[in-house]
Amino acid sequence: MAATVLAQHRSDAEESGIVPRMRNEAATAKLTVQRVRDHLHVILGAGGNITVLTGPDGKLLVEAGLATARPALTASLDSLGTDPIKHLINTHWHFDHSDGNAWLHDAGATIYAQEKTRRYLSAFSQVVDWDYTFKPFLPGALPTVVFDQNLTLYLNGQTIALNRYEPAHTSSDLSVHFVEADVFCVADTWWNGFYPFIDYSTGGSINGTIRATEANLANPKVSDATVIVPGHGAVGNKGQLAEYHGMLVAIRDKVAALKKQGRSLQETVAAKPTAAHDAKWGNYLVLPDLFTHLVYKGV
Ligand SMILES: [Zn+2]
């Protein structure tokens, strides 16, 4: 029975093809440029959210977005002034955050990431729940400044603190904190308004995702005034992040109880344990049945 549901997810992924679909969408997407604070902007619509810091040390980007969004992203970056592109941080290896690495490196960016992110990008890396295997990047597209736990950059008048999470969405997610501006990028540990994807193939899990959210909420540097940039969805704040945490815990507990009763994956999906949350969270990419499947795997 479980195999049937899995097979259905695979064929869904093949027919609509999540990876090609996202690439196609980004090719024609209209991007939104939102000023966040000081010299920080967020560009939405090119894949994962892209945070941009401008200034005399050159533009710094958190995330590269999808390569198909290059023309629109170039126009958006140009609208933020003439500082050259100099720095790029990959918060994790997923294609909607790193696909643009090659052209951004050619444009002048040094790429920073956790060392496992470089390893995933250097090899054939499969995401089972996307039914997709990514090819190794060419050397120019790989991060060249890598670290294990943390790295601090001082650029454009900001202290930029990169910190590794315990395994959450993948095994090498980073947060990026612009200290003086009080802007905190939490990567794909937070999908604001949507059920998150969780990549079990490279070390992610529902409980890791919940723990990362708890770490964000408990972080003494994160206050009610902090601007929090999610990997996907609107720029938000601590209150909204707490709401997301509540949703994750409620669904995790429901699915865990069903699994403990001996329900199969298919029976658990049929019981619709996400129903109370679907109207708010279940309308993008990770639809309710897939999210139930992702939670069931980890409880
Ligand atoms: Zn991701």
Explain the overall architecture.
The model is unreliable at 1-15 (pLDDT under 50). Helix 7 runs antiparallel to helix 8 (238-260). 46% of the residues are buried. By secondary structure, the protein is α/β, with parallel strands linked by helices. It is 37% helix and 22% strand. It is built from eleven helices and 16 strands. The chain has a single domain, classed as 4-Layer Sandwich (Metallo-beta-lactamase, Chain A), CATH 3.60.15. The chain is globular and about 60 Å long. The two termini are 18 Å apart. The strands form four sheets. It has a seven-stranded mixed β-sheet with strand order 1-2-3-4-5-6-9. The protein has a five-stranded mixed β-sheet with strand order 10-11-12-13-15, with no helix packed on it. Zinc ion (ZN) binds at residues 92, 94, 169, 188.
Topology:
Layout: H1 2-16, H2 18-28, E1 32-37, E2 40-44, E3 50-53, E4 59-62, H3 70-78, E5 85-89, H4 95-98, H5 101-106, E6 110-114, H6 115-122, E7 125-127, E8 132-134, E9 145-147, E10 150-155, E11 158-164, E12 174-178, E13 183-185, E14 191-192, H7 206-218, E15 227-229, E16 232-233, H8 238-260, H9 265-270, H10 275-281, H11 288-296
Parallel strand pairs: 4-5, 5-6, 6-9, 13-15, 14-16
Antiparallel strand pairs: 1-2, 2-3, 3-4, 7-8, 10-11, 11-12, 12-13
Helix pairs in contact: 7-8
The structure holds zinc ion.
The site of zinc ion has 4 residues, from loops.
